[in-house]
Write a structure and sequence with these properties.
The structure holds 2 protein chains of 2 kinds.
Chain A: E1 5-8, E2 11-14, E3 19-23, E4 26-29, E5 32-34, E6 42-45, E7 49-53, E8 55-60, H1 65-73, E9 82-83, E10 92-93, H2 100-110, E11 112-120, H3 125-133, E12 139-145, H4 150-157, H5 161-175, E13 179-183, H6 187-193, H7 214-228, E14 235-237, H8 247-256, E15 262-264, E16 272-273, E17 281-282, H9 284-293, E18 297-300, E19 307-313, H10 316-326, E20 330-334, E21 342-348, H11 353-368, E22 375-376, H12 390-398, H13 400-407, H14 412-416, H15 429-444, E23 460-464, H16 469-474, E24 478-481, E25 484-488, E26 491-492, E27 500-503, H17 511-522, E28 540-543
Parallel strand pairs in A: 1-6, 2-7, 8-11, 11-12, 12-13, 13-14, 14-15, 15-18, 18-22, 27-28
Antiparallel strand pairs in A: 1-4, 2-3, 4-5, 7-23, 9-10, 16-17, 19-21, 20-21, 23-24, 24-25, 25-26
Helix pairs in contact in A: 5-7, 9-11
Chain B: H1 2-14, E1 17-23, E2 35-40, E3 45-50, H2 54-62, E4 71-73, E5 76-77, H3 80-93, E6 97-101, H4 107-119, E7 123-126, H5 133-142, E8 143-147, H6 149-155, E9 158-162, H7 166-169, H8 173-178, E10 194-198, E11 211-213, H9 220-231, H10 240-244, H11 248-260, E12 263-268, H12 270-273, H13 279-292, E13 297-302, H14 309-320, E14 326-327, E15 334-335, H15 342-347, E16 353-357, H16 361-364, H17 367-375, E17 378-382, H18 387-390, E18 394-397, E19 407-410, E20 416-419, H19 430-450, H20 457-463
Helix pairs in contact in B: 3-19, 4-14, 4-19, 5-13, 9-11, 9-13
Classes of the chains: A alpha/beta, B alpha/beta.
Amino acid sequence: MSATMRIVNGQVYDPKNNINGEIKEICIQDGKIVDAVDDDATIIDAKGMVIMPGGVDIHCHIAGPKVNLARKLTPEARRHDVHPSTPFTRSGSGGTTPSTFAAGYRYATLGYTTAMEAAVSPIGARHVLEEFEDTPIIDKGFYVLLGNNIFLHNLIREKRFEEFEQAVAWWVNATKAYTVKLVNPGGDEAWKGKKNSNVTDIDEKTGPSSDISPRQIIEAFVKTVNKQGYPHPPHIHCNNLGHSGNYITTLETMKTAGDLRAHIAHIQFHSYGGVVGKNPISKAAEIADYVNKHPNITCDVGQVMFGESTIMTADAPLAYVLKGHTKGKWVNADTECESGCGILPFVYQEHLYMHTLQWAIGLELFLLSEDPWRIILSTDHPNGGSFMAYPKLIKLLMDEKFRHEEMKRVNQKALLKCSLPELKREYTLYEIAIITRAGPAKALGLETKGHLGVGADADITIYDLMDDKEMMFSTARYVFKSGEPMIANHEFTTDSKGKVYHIAPTYDNKIEEVLKPFFEDFYSIEFSNYPVDDHYLHQHEIIKTR
Amino acid sequence: MTEQKSNKKTEEQNKNIKIVKDATCTFCGCVCDDMELHVDLDEKRIIKAKNACVLGRAWFAEHTIEDAPAALIDGKEVSVEEAVEEAAQTLVKAKFPITYGLSDTTSEAQKQAVAITDYIKGNIDTTTSVCHGPSGLAFQGVGESTSTLGEVKNRADLVIYWGGNPAESHPRHFGRYAVTPKGMFTPNGKKDRTIVLVDVRKTKSAGVADILIRPKPGKDFEVLWALRALVKGISISTDIEKETGVPLEVLTDLVERMKNCRFGVLFFGMGLTMTRGRHFNSGALLALATDLNEYTHFVAKPVRGHGNVTGADNVVSWQTGYPFGVNFSRGYPRFNPGEFTTVDTLSNGDADAAMIIASDPGSNFPKKAIEHLKNIPVVVLDTKSTDTTKLAHVAFKTATYGINTGGTVYRMDDVSIPLRPAFESPFPDDETILKAIKKRVHELILKKNDSRGASGEAKVAAAVNPL
C-alpha cells in the first residue's frame, strides 16, 4: 500500500529549504515527497496546523543490553505508566526506559520518526538489532563503542595506524553501526583493572601499562573517521563527565579534533567550571563560544529535566560516583575487551544546587548558540530525562515567561552561578524545526531526512498550532512515516517496523588475520560468530561513506 | 571399544558427511560456540561433536529425526495447518490463556510467543520463574555488578562458586570461562586464580576448589550477611560457627581475599536461589558483590541453566518491560510473580487454556498444577514426546534449535550468539509455527474487535500482521 497524498493549507517549517511558516502544499507518492500528485490523491486539510519533517533524535538510549538491564532493574518505574495495545499496535510499558514497542509508538506520538541509539558495545550489536526489529515506526541506527577497545588501544600504542584504520572499519562493518562512539576514552582499564579508579585528565597516561592517553585515542579516531568519510563524525562522550572543572577537558577534546569534524555528545554534562569535589559553576558561555566559532563541531545538549531519569552509560566510573549519592540499587556490566557500563535510577530535583545548575546550563547552551544547526536538542534520554520531556523543553526554549515561572521553583543559589536569568532569547518554530529535525539530519548526513524538499522521505509531522507549545508538541495530529499515515487525528491507524541505517566503510580483509589471534586469546565467543550477519537487519539502508 | 572406533572411522569415510565449524551447543547456559559437528547427512544425525562436554555430546547425539506426525489434535494426526487453526481458536476462545516455557527455543520464536500472548491478552511466563526467578527479583531490589564471561577469563583472580555444581551441570564453565583458561591478565590460568566453592555438599566441583566452605543447609543467607558485615568492618561473634557451620576465621580469611583481589567474581546457582530464603539469598549475594566494589572490582553472575533461558528473560523484558510472570489481561503488561507465574496460574486454577513451548511442566511441576493442566486445553510445541505433549489438545513436533534451525540464543551473561544448524528437519521450527498461530490469532482478534466498532473490513485486512 503506497499512499498518494496532498497536504494542503498547512504552515510549513522546512529550514533546509528555507521555508519559514509559509502555506505550502506537500505532495507524497511512493513514500517520498514529490512535486505534484494526480488530482485523485487523498487530500488532507491542515488548516490551522503546522507541518514539519519528522523529528530526528541524534542521541538517545532505547535498545540493547544496557537498556534491557535498566528495564529489568526498574519495574517500579513503569507500573503506573502503562501503554495499552490498540487493534493495530502492541502493548508495552513506559517509565524512563520504555519497552521497545512503547518507545517506538511514543516517539511517533511526539512527531519523531528517526532515533539513533547512541552507545552499543560491539558484542551487543546483535541484541540491539533484535530490539530494533521490535521498535516500531521509527527509523533507527546505532553508534558502536570503540573508545575503550583494548585491541585498538594496542594498535594506537604501537603506532600501527594503517592497521588501526582497517580495524575500525572492520568493526563498524561487523556490527552494522552508523558511526563510532567514544565514551570516557581510556577510562575502562582504570575501572576494571585498577580497582575502580578512573582517568581524570585528557593527557593522563592510562591502560594496563599506563602508556596511552585519552587524547591519543580521540585523535586516532577523529582522523580515521574523517579520512574514511563517515556520514556522521565520531560521537564523543568526553572524559570527566559531570565533574566540576570539566569544561577544560571538553575544550581540549574539541581542540584535539582541530578542524576535523567531531560530535560532542550531551555537552551540558561537560560544561562545568569550579574545582573537583566542590559545587560547579556554569561554563556554558565558554563552551558555546567555542562551538559557535568552529563549524566542524556539532553537539547535542543533553538537557536535564527535573523528575525521574535513569542513568545509563558506558562511563561505568561515573555511574559509581552517582551511586554514592543515591545509595540505591546499581548495575555495573563489564564487556570483555571493549566496554563498561553503569546503570541506576536517578531523580533530578529542583531544590538541589547541582541539578538546578545542570538544568540551567543546558538552557544556556541552547540560548547562547548562534548556529542552531549545530547545537541539537536532546536529553541524552533517559540520562537527563525521558524523550517524553521534549515538548516541555521546547516550551522552555520558546517561552521566556514560562522559563521565568519555572526559575522561581528552582535552587536560587545555582541561578546566581549562571547567566540563564538574563537570557531573553525565545526560539521560533523555524529554529525548533532546526534543532529537532533539519540540524540532526544534517549532522547525521541523512540527506533524505529532516526536510520536505522533493526526494525527501515522506516522514511528516502535523501539529495543531497552539499557544502552549508543550501541549502542541506533545501529540502530533498526523504522523506520516515513509508516506504512510501512522497517526491520523491522534489515533494510530496502522503499524510499521521502520528501517535500520548503517554504514559499510571499505577495508582490507587482511586485517582479520591480525584480529583473529587476539579474539582466540581474549574473547569468549568465536571470531566467526562475532560479526552480525545481514538477516538481523531486516529493512535497512546503507548510507554511503565518502 | 577400539574396534568400534576404527569401524566408525571407515564408516565416516564412506558416508555423506558434513562438518559444521563454530556451531553452538544450546544444552546449557554456557552456550559454547566452538563445536565442530560431524553430520551424517544420509542418516540425518550428528555422529561427532568435537569440543562438546559430556552433556553436549548427548544433546547432539540424541536429537535425531524421529518418525512421528508433525501435528496432533487429541492424539490424532492432522495437518500443521489444521493444528494451527485449532491452536489459534483455542487460545482466542480462552478467558485466561497462559503461555509458558520458552527457555529452549530461539529468541526469534520467543518474540512470536510474546506477540501472541499480547494479542490474546493472556499471561506469559518462562522457566525463569522456577529457576533463577528469585535472582531476577533480587536484581530488581539491589541491582548487580556483573560482567561477560570473557572478562572473567581475562581478569578474575578470585572466583567463588556458591550453591552450584558446575562440574556436573555446566561442565565447560571451569575450562572455558572461569577456572583454567589463560586470559589477558591471567596468563598462567588456574595458577593465577584462587577458586572458592561454597556448597552444603561436597560435590564433584570440589575438586577444583582451593577453598571449600560448607555451610549448614539453609544457612546461606546468614553466611552472606556475616560476610557483608565483615566487609564493612562490623565485628561478628564466634557464635556464627554454631549458627552456620562456618568458623569465623574462614569467613574473615575469605573477606580478606575478596577485598584484596584484583578482580573478583561470585557465580551462584540454584542451591542459593531455590532454597530457604530464595530472593533474599540472591539479594544478599548481589549486595555483597556491590559492597566489595568499594575496595576492588567485584562482579556476580547467576549460572543459568537452559540454553536460551537468558534470551527468554531478555525478549520478555524488551517487549513488556518485565522479565517473567507477565499478564496482559488489561491490555497492557503487568508483573506479579506469585500470581502470574505459571505454577500459580495453574495451581490456583486461573488458567483456562495453555500454550507450552519447549518445556515440560507436565513432568516437573507440582501435582496440583499438573492436575489443572490436564483439565484445560493445552497447545504444546516440542521437539520430543514428553509428559506435557501427552496431555496436549494440540501438539506440534518441531525442529530442534541449534541442530536443525538457525536463530539467536543468549548466553548466561547476556551475550547473544547465532546458531549454525547441522541438518534439516522435516518438522517446522517453533518460530514458523508460532508465526502462523500469531497471524491467525491476530485475524480472529481483529474480527472480534470489529464488531465492537474498532474498524472497517478494509482496515482490518490492511492491518493484519504488519509486524
